[in-house]
Amino acid sequence: MRWENLTVEPRRDRPADAALFGADAVTTRTLDTPEFAGTTFHEIRARTILNRVPGASRMPFEWTVNPYRGCTHACVYCFARKTHGHLGLDTGVGFDTQIVVKVNAPELLRRQLASPRWHGEHVAMGTNVDCCQRAEGRYRLMPGILTALRDRASPFSILTKGTLILRDLDLLKQSAEVTDVGISVSVGFTDTELWRTVEPGTPAPQRRLEVVRTLTAHGIGCGVLMAPVIPFLGDRPDQLRATVRSIAAAGATSVTPLVLHLRPGAREWFTTWLGEHHPHLVRRFERLYADGAYAPKWYQRRLTRQVHDLAQEYGIGPTRAGMPRRIRPPEPAAEPAAAGPAQLSLL
Q1: Is 60 exceeded by the pLDDT of residue 50?
Q2: pTM of the model
């Protein structure tokens, strides 16, 4: 398995370039603290940190930065679980408790951004696992990453379920003065009981909405990715209304719904969880997702229309297709105009 190449003494029957990371710099540690009980950290020195998104991907960006693999948020539906299997690690509990930490991410990013081959494209973070998960409170990789992006005026976006992003508020504000910055917070529902069972390691939905409120108060526009909306568990009209109402009250600039999708790795783990907590729904999910990882188009369209109608009712608009979730630096002050007639503009 590729994970074996991360040990300090790699097997001699494997080529050196088979490793995903430098095998001479792997440290495995556990922490004797309540917040990290049962969690193992594998500290590695990555060989690259800027990752190109495959051309066939549906994502609206070309480059990502992911300082962690695995996530203590432990969301039972997380699509990134399969990536742990690429390392020979368990995609269930192992994904939640075996965290790979790219400790050299900030210095590596700074070096890659300085390369003449880098042309300042948009960099997305939080697209695989959350870059503001609890481990970030210990390893503090994001301040260095944000500083590197700020210093090169590289546009970037962050998607998170964490509240740690507020620790770096000053860096976000400084970055927004020189480049495009986009922040989105993921809040698929505000149902407390549902949150406790499907997202046990995340901050509560209302705490995440406080992040939206705080960013907005500091002039940083923040959208909400209403994801995932979970069929049969979080899609009742009253649940959708309560969630959109709370998102609007937090001052979100947009709300974008996304129905649960179940890719291999995540599907098996979610189905096991479903059988334990809601066995009467197993067959309904099997029928709804019989054709693959995504819910049927008719269901997605209906759900999207419901959320968009509610968003309009509460005074917020959906993010349009292809619309960047960014804020722009303020325009420079105009030179005083000479006295005389002025041409008014609508824009």
Answers
A1: yes
A2: 0.84
Beta-carbon contacts of 111 under 8 Å, excluding residues fewer than 6 positions away, are none
- Largest Cα–Cα separation, the chain: 82
C-alpha distances in angstroms, 247 versus 58, 156, 161, 185, 226? 25, 23, 14, 10, 9
Q: Name the residue type at position 221.
A: G
Rounded Cα distance between 143 and 150, Å, is 10
For residue 225, report the phi and psi dihedrals to the nearest 5 degrees. Answer: -90, 105
Handedness of CA 34, 37, 39, 42 (dihedral sign): positive
| Closest of 310, 202, 199 to residue 256, by C-alpha | 310
Mean of the per-residue pLDDT values of the chain: 86
pLDDT tens string 70-122? 999 999 999 999 989 888 888 999 999 999 999 999 999 999 999 999 999 99
pLDDT value of position 5:
42
Contacts for 289-298: CB closer than 8 Å, 24+ residues apart: 289/262, 293/261, 293/262, 293/263, 293/264, 293/267, 294/259, 294/261, 295/231, 295/259, 295/260, 295/261
DSSP output for 70-113: S-TT--TT-TTHHHHHTTT--SSHHHHHEEEEETTHHHHHHHHH
For the record, the structure tokens of 44 come out as 């590695």
Distance CA 148, CA 164 (A): 18
For the record, the structure tokens of 215 come out as 């960013």
Contact 134, 201 (CB under 8 A): yes
Indicate whether 346 pLDDT > 50.
no
Cα–Cα dist 205/197, whole Å: 13
